[in-house]
Amino acid sequence: MKSIIIGGGKIGSNLLKTLKGRGYNVTLIEKDENVCRKIANDLDADIICGDGSDLAVLNDAGINNADIIAAVTGKDEENLVICQIAKMEFQINKSIARVNYPKNISMFKALGVNQTVCSTEVIANLIEYEFDSDICKIVQTFDRGAMILVEVSVDEKSRWLNCFIRDLELPGESVIAAVLRNGKIIYPRGDTQILKNDNVNLITNQATFLKIKEYMQNGGVSYAKQKK
Questions:
Q1: Which range, 106-115, 152-161, 164-173, is most confident?
Q2: Domains in the chain: how many in total?
Q3: What is the pTM of this model?
């Protein structure tokens, strides 16, 4: 899967390095030739010198094959415009924008930007999680990424299928907030049973999310009580 980063400053360059190190197909767009040259000297990566809001530049970067973009320039208005162009012109539904001024967060969200964050590590994790299976994914971040809202989809193969809430032994740093069933919210109690096609929402942190994801996808440590 492919991601595009717009902005080659400290956050953009570190994000490029992080994602490359994790083996992802990523392209960086940066206006300043000197910055492009410096990054190219430090890292073997796909770098395009140009304006990230220019349709031709975005086409050259392969946006038609991109799954997600991250606009991380130093200007909020640029990041917003880039996300809007990606959505309206190229139907890119997943976008992450760096927000330098917290007062702009509500505006970004109102205009359809999926995630608004500042930290390089948080942005890298959000991109990686978007590439993950829909079984277990992040739907929102809080407190600059320290806490996250996670959605676990339950199908016929799920380890949580037909389990009761009281039988789930989750890590201490997590709590089940709601169960979504047929478009309705169920506030979980101990005798709430998890059924096929439910979406279970949890509040947790990054480290615990990785443990839960490993269990749901690969069979890590069990988080359901064994039936006697």
A1: 152-161
A2: 2
A3: 0.55
